[in-house]
Design goal:
Blueprint: E1 9-12, H1 35-40, H2 49-58, E2 63-71, H3 75-84, E3 92-95, H4 103-115, E4 120-125, H5 128-136, E5 141-143, H6 151-158
Parallel strand pairs: 1-2, 1-4, 2-3, 4-5
Length: about 160
Amino acid sequence: MTDSSRRPLAVFDLDNTLADTAHRQRYLERKPRDWDAFFAAAPADPPIPEGIALALESAKECEVVYLTGRPERCRRDTLDWLAAQGLPDGRVHMRRNDDRRPARRTKLETLRRLARDRDVRVVVDDDEMVCEDAERAGFPVVRAQWAAPSAALRTAQEGEGRT
């Protein structure tokens, strides 16, 4: 049962929704993929204006929550990046360092857990499979189509469960 006395949630993805990862895609395009370098470069991600504006607007009526496929070991860099962009404070849900399941599974599990006691007003994500599964589960979705899609990132999210 949801608690209607608390503000609804606006759930935002990070990579290619709020943060532009284009400058670090090269680490995923090589064989073998260089995951350490990919995540080490995340603090230099430029913000995506459309995503930032939507998060700030959502914060007027909702509690903003961040749901990312980034591994837990990236938490400090992620929190610092969010603060540097002036984004609203909010819980950050990350995958365990050893979790290699597809993003659509891990994110849907978290969304369902959040929805047990809170109204989820919107889910904002760039991953089409995450969006489709969230919609099928009854969540309202905004597709973050403001960043250039990356085949390497999609493979990482779905095939390797890495981000």
